[in-house]
Amino acid sequence: MTRASPVEDPVIELHAVRKIYRMGTEEVRALDGVSLQFGTGEFWAVMGPSGSGKSTLLNLLGCLDVPTAGRYLVHGEDVSGLDDDALSHLRLRRLGFIFQSFHLIPQLSVRENIELPLYYLGWDPAHSAERAVELAGLVGLESRVNHRPAELSGGQQQRVAIARALANDPEILLADEPTGNLDTATGEQIMRLLGDLHGQGKTILMVTHEPEIASFASHQLHLRDGRIERIEDPS
């Protein structure tokens, strides 16, 4: 199943993408012929039951894994066959990741955690520190930049994770259950923040199992057994 109408400016294109895992003699088709376009500046929620292929799809989109078959294009460039170094470069330059469990480094301060992608990009330390403080302010943590993760609430830690994901000014934000470890009120605050980022033009692809969280997105992709079950697309 494809979208109701073609995308004029697709940031991501999937063409007959398959991901097959072999467990002994058993073959598991985690993704089974997925074809879809994601437009620049869109906000997608990816939904489906356990085992539907949500996490596999997010890993492929994030260049953390490669398809068994099919093509994956970013701005028209086929990245399906890139080697590990090229995939790492693509992740650093174009992608930002937000995880359910935050993945912050406990020994580092808020500022230092936000700075991490800039360190790998080779930024000047003074410039990266300035950028980190700016992003801490964007997510409402300007007064907490010298605190460590253990001194923050779960919602504050997720805000640090979002700021870190924005450090390299990525075109695409990939979020894996970003509210999964948060209470309802805090989760809604995080979703409003993601909504603001979408309003600023970021492309956001978010895995969630919660309809209430998915309702913040402008498009919904429903997977089942590695295939597209349906698309809720306003176009």
CATH-wise, what's the superfamily? P-loop containing nucleotide triphosphate hydrolases
Number of individual domains: 1
Tell me the CATH architecture: 3-Layer(aba) Sandwich
Which structural class is indicated by helix and strand composition?
A: alpha/beta
- Give the CATH level 1 class: Alpha Beta
- Portion of residues in beta strands equals 25-35%
Q: CATH topology, anyone? A: Rossmann fold
What is the total tally of β strands?
10
Low-pLDDT stretches: none
The pLDDT mean sits at 92
Q: Span between N and C termini?
A: 15 Å
Widest sheet: strand order? 6-7-8-3-9-10
Q: What best-fitting shape do the alpha-carbon axes yield?
A: globular
Q: What is the count of helical runs? A: 7
Radius of gyration: 18 Å
Largest sheet: 6 strands, mixed
